[in-house]
Specification:
This protein has about 90 residues and is of the alpha+beta class. About 20% of the residues lie in helices and about 15% in strands. Strand 2 and strand 3 form a beta hairpin. Zinc ion binds near residues 34, 37, 66, 67 and 70.
């Protein structure tokens, strides 16, 4: 998994969300690729990340598909990060 410094942090939203192709992709849904590990997704995605960009008053959302392995891993990492933030603020 490669995370570039300027990429927004992918956050898991709904593990059981309906499959959607990448907003910027022209591929058919049958050739979805995991946004985290770039492996092809066979069948249903394991979940979706969430990217949010703002430019001026424009807010753009993207929910890239994640594979069955990356979706729970990223979700657990996000939860652990939120727990850490809660402990640090107490
Ligand atoms: Zn993956």
């Amino acid at each position: 998994m490669t995370i570039r410094a300027r990429d927004p942090l992918p956050l898991l939203t709904e593990a059981e969300a309906s499959p959607r192709p990448r907003a910027s992709a022209t591929r058919a849904p049958t050739t979805l690729v995991c946004d985290a590990c770039d492996e092809p997704i066979v069948g249903e995605p394991g979940g979706h990340g969430l990217y949010v960009w703002t430019r001026g008053d424009t807010v753009r959302y993207e929910e890239p598909p994640l594979c069955q392995s990356c979706a729970p891993t990223i979700g657990i990492c996000a939860l652990a990060g939120w727990d850490r933030e809660d402990e640090e603020s107490e």
